[in-house]
């Protein structure tokens, strides 16, 4: 029910050119993820439930690989905020994807330290190796290649991240070896970051 | 009240503790520009134009987000501040289309005014402007049933985002993407659907959000006059300003062109609802009753008044007459009715009750009762409820039983605000009511069924007072002249009073208010009624000067004609492509 006087709407005017995320298949959190989310929400005061929004989006992304309109609605319902607020967050953080991504998301840091240490050469190599320009995903959804901002390991530039792990001092050859390894043995080939190697 | 004292540009200023430096500057009459700051919204600190120098702080500070401290020394106009501020303005205009000539905000645009006063003389940006949704007016896109959005003009102050979140209670607006790609957005591009959406046009400091109703219709310089009044479309009684547009030379006269809210902390804060804002077209619409009618034919006032007397005599006197009065009747009208009510069959109040769909935690609740003066009726001693659905069953059964030979309907409100009237029409058709007299403003099925029709005035055509739901007694001013032969409702009633057995003669509506104030002297709410003054159409400039500065937060700078700060030679001659001269900061 609207009390607005009749004003011509939606006809004859220009429409927004903003590209919307895809609707996607109907999204529902799995019971396990919902339980996890509820647990995360308990870490914040009840009236600040919204604080768990990033965690909720990560769960949704983990479950489906990327975030769709349907997933945003599910997150808004779970977090009890508006869908616009969810979309705002999704678009602000580059690590939330709104389109299907490859199994291995290869991210080359292009911020200062890495750039000075030759990150562009690494990107070039990876691009040639994978046949992808930065931002693209191959048709088999095996690889996505992304250029990202500082990954927080500047002392070991250039840094290449693969999913949740990062690989340091990646000169072009090392990067090529990384891809070969991934192709041959999948995620198992990853050695992870030096902290892991040294510390664990 | 705990206070702090600080020095602003060498002058000591004392403000309430917790106020921001910007608020202290505004309070002390100083000039600091602002976009993201809005007194009715939370602090954001995103636009950076309010920067000032505060001694002992290493960098320039955004005054809107810095609370005043005891002994602070603030400078708002040193060369350092001026230069830094000018750079911020330069950046704000990097992608702004500057299509002021076709922009609805042009002339009352803080971006124009502040850029003119504080910005650099020219931009040094040589690259193409980033556009969304296309160039020029193509970029005006649908943004819900009442608004249009032009993202190219948006300066991302997030006032609209905060309004929806904080005041409306349903955060429908967000910002997608970031940096230079940031754009105002709604989920699935559905636009804003809210009964408070019109306020977004007010809070937007640029021409990014405009209302479908007002866009392309007028400009500030076409609206020479503004009148402070109130909205009477529901029992809230929001304080408003009615804007009057001058018609072109060849079509003399004026026209009500828009309504904007006016600050009243106790009632509506800075806001008003869309119903009050957009539902005004009926006032100067085609369906106004311009002349008195008898049995559907135009007649003169004299004949109409005589026929009312004849009709009352014909049914056997005033005791056989009943009154059905809209909750839109003002105190003046009701006071006159009250004086002869005892001689008549009785007075029944009716109004429309509609629950407005709003988010549960909205800060601006629109009441369900669409009647501005039920509390006034109660205070005048009428027996009526002041909330909920009107109970007219007693009158209905009296009509059914054939006990009401003459029904006098007073309906000075817009369509439908009298509540259900179908039964009146049916009863008149069935002959259960012998004579139906209607005093109204709009032709309707009810007025078509009337034997005698008397043209009254809408709330913007008379000085009248109303008591809102919280007991505030407020005046709605005469903004425009009434159409045709329409007469102020209290006058019609006072002329007819003799028919109903009393002879009230007041020289003016002010005289009625004096009498009301005497009658209700015991009630402190009515203490000011006798001396109530009404705003008159005044030029926008004097309107601004006559007002309390905090009320006019938006137009504060509109007519000040501050001299622009020129950087002239400091910025060098016309910029050369490969050289970017910078202003030296001492
Ligand atoms: S928003 Fe203001 S500055 Fe921008 S085009 Fe409109 S009038 Fe001009
Ligand atoms: S649309 Fe207007 S109010 Fe909203 S962020 Fe842009 S400039 Fe500010
Ligand atoms: S710059 Fe690459 S990791 Fe920090
Ligand atoms: S008004 Fe202070 S940063 Fe915008």
Keywords:
heterodimer, A: 200 residues, alpha+beta, Arc Repressor Mutant, subunit A, Glutaredoxin, four-stranded mixed sheet, 8 helices, 40% helix, 9% strand, B: 586 residues, Ubiquitin-like (UB roll), Alpha-Beta Plaits, Rossmann fold, 3 domains, seven-stranded mixed sheet, five-stranded mixed sheet, 23 strands, 18% strand, disordered C terminus, binds iron/sulfur cluster, binds FE2/S2 (inorganic) cluster
Describe, in plain words, how this protein is organized in 3D:
The complex is a heterodimer of chains A (200) and B (586). Chain A is of the alpha+beta class and 200 residues long. Chain A folds into two domains: 9-100, Orthogonal Bundle (Arc Repressor Mutant, subunit A), CATH 1.10.10; 104-199, Glutaredoxin (3-Layer(aba) Sandwich), CATH 3.40.30.10. Chain A is built from eight helices and four strands; from the N terminus they run ααααβααβββαα. Chain A has helices at 31-41, 53-64, 69-79, 83-92, 112-116, 119-130, 172-185, 194-199; strands spanning 104-109, 143-148, 160-162, 165-167. In chain A, strands 2-1-3-4 form a four-stranded mixed β-sheet, covered by helices on one side. Chain A is globular, with a radius of gyration of 20 Å. The termini of chain A are far apart. Chain B is an alpha+beta fold and 586 residues long. Chain B has three domains: 3-105, Ubiquitin-like (UB roll) (Roll); 130-211, 2-Layer Sandwich (Alpha-Beta Plaits), CATH 3.30.70; 292-539, Rossmann fold (3-Layer(aba) Sandwich). Chain B has 15 helices and 23 strands. Chain B has a seven-stranded mixed β-sheet with strand order 15-14-20-19-18-16-17. In chain B, strands 2-1-5-3-4 form a five-stranded mixed β-sheet, sandwiched between helices. The longest helix of chain B has 14 residues, at 79-92. Chain B is elongated. The A-B interface holds A 1-5, 7-10, 13-18, 20, 69, 72, 81-88, 91-92 and B 132-134, 137-142, 144-146, 148-149, 165, 170-178, 183, 185-189, 193, 195, 212-213, 274-275, 278-279, 281, 354, 356-357. The structure holds iron/sulfur cluster (2 copies) and FE2/S2 (inorganic) cluster (2 copies). One iron/sulfur cluster is lined by residues 96, 98-100, 103, 105-106, 109, 111-112, 153, 206-207 of chain B.
């Amino acid at each position: 029910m609207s009390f607005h006087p009749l004003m011509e709407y939606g006809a004859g005017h220009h429409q927004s050119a903003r590209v919307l995320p895809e609707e996607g298949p109907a999204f529902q959190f799995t019971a396990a993820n919902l339980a996890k989310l509820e647990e995360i929400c308990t870490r914040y005061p009840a009236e600040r439930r919204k604080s768990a929004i990033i965690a909720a989006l990560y769960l949704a992304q983990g479950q489906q690989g990327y975030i769709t309109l349907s997933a945003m609605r599910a997150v808004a319902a779970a977090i009890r905020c508006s869908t616009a607020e969810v979309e705002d967050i999704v678009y602000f953080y580059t690590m939330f994807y709104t389109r299907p991504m490859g199994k291995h998301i290869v991210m080359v840091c292009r911020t200062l330290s890495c750039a000075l240490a030759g990150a562009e050469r690494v990107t070039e190599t990876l691009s040639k190796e994978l046949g992808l320009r930065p931002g693209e995903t191959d048709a088999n959804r095996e690889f996505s290649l992304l250029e990202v901002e500082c990954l927080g390991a500047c002392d070991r530039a250039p840094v290449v991240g693969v999913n949740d792990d990062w690989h340091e001092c990646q000169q072009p050859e090392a990067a090529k070896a990384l891809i070969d390894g991934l192709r041959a043995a999948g995620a198992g080939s990853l050695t992870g970051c030096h902290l892991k190697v040294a510390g664990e | 009240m705990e206070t702090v004292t600080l020095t602003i540009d060498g002058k000591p200023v004392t403000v309430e503790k917790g106020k921001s430096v910007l608020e202290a500057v505004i309070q002390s009459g100083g000039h600091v520009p602002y976009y993201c700051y809005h007194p009715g919204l939370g602090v954001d600190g995103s636009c950076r134009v309010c920067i000032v120098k505060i001694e002992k702080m290493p960098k320039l500070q955004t005054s809107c987000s810095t609370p005043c401290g005891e002994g602070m020394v603030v400078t708002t106009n040193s060369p350092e501040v001026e230069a830094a501020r000018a750079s911020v303005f330069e950046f704000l205009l990097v992608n702004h289309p500057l299509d002021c000539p076709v922009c609805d905000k042009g002339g009352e645009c803080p971006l124009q005014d502040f850029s003119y006063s504080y910005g650099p003389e020219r931009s040094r940006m040589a690259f193409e402007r980033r556009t969304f949704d296309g160039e020029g007016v193509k970029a005006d896109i649908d943004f819900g049933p009442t608004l249009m959005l032009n993202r190219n003009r948006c300066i991302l102050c997030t006032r609209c985002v905060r309004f929806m979140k904080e005041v409306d209670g349903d955060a429908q607006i967000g910002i997608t993407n970031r940096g230079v790609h940031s754009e105002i957005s709604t989920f699935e591009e559905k636009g804003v659907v809210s009964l408070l959406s019109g306020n977004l046009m007010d809070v937007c400091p640029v021409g990014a959000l405009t209302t479908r109703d007002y866009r392309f219709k007028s400009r500030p310089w076409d609206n020479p006059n503004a009148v402070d009044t109130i909205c009477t479309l529901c029992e809230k009684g929001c304080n408003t300003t009615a804007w009057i547009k001058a018609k072109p030379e060849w079509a003399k006269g004026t026209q009500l062109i828009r309504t904007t809210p006016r600050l009243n902390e106790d009632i509506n804060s800075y806001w008003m609802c869309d119903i009050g804002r957009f539902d005004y077209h009926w006032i100067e619409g085609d369906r106004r009753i311009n002349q008195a009618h008898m049995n559907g034919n135009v007649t003169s006032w004299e004949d109409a008044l005589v026929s009312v007397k004849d009709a009352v005599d014909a049914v056997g006197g005033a005791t056989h007459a009943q009154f059905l009065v809209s909750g839109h009747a003002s105190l003046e009208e009701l006071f006159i009715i009250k004086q002869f009510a005892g001689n008549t069959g009785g007075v029944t109040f009716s109004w429309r009750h509609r629950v407005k769909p709003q988010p549960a935690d909205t800060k601006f609740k629109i009441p369900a009762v669409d009647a501005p003066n039920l509390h006034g009726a109660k205070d005048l001693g009428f027996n009526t409820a002041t909330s909920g659905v009107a109970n007219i069953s007693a009158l209905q059964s009296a009509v059914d039983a054939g006990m009401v030979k003459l029904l006098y309907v007073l309906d000075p409100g817009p369509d439908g605000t009298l509540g259900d009237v179908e039964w009146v029409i049916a009863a008149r058709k069935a002959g259960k009511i012998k004579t139906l007299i209607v005093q109204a403003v709009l032709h309707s099925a009810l007025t078509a069924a009337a034997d005698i029709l008397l043209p009254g005035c809408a709330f913007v055509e008379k000085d009248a007072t109303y008591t809102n739901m919280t007991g505030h007694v407020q005046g709605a001013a005469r903004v425009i002249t009434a159409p045709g032969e329409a007469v102020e409702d209290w006058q019609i009633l006072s002329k007819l009073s003799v028919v109903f057995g009393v002879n009230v003669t007041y020289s003016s509506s002010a005289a009625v208010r004096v009498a009301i104030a005497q009658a209700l002297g015991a009630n402190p709410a009515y203490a000011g009624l006798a001396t109530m003054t009404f705003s008159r159409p005044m030029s926008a400039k004097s309107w601004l000067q006559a007002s309390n500065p905090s009320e006019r937060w938006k137009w504060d700078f509109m007519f000040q004609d501050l001299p622009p700060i020129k950087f002239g030679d400091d910025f060098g001659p016309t910029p050369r492509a490969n050289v970017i001269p910078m202003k030296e900061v001492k």
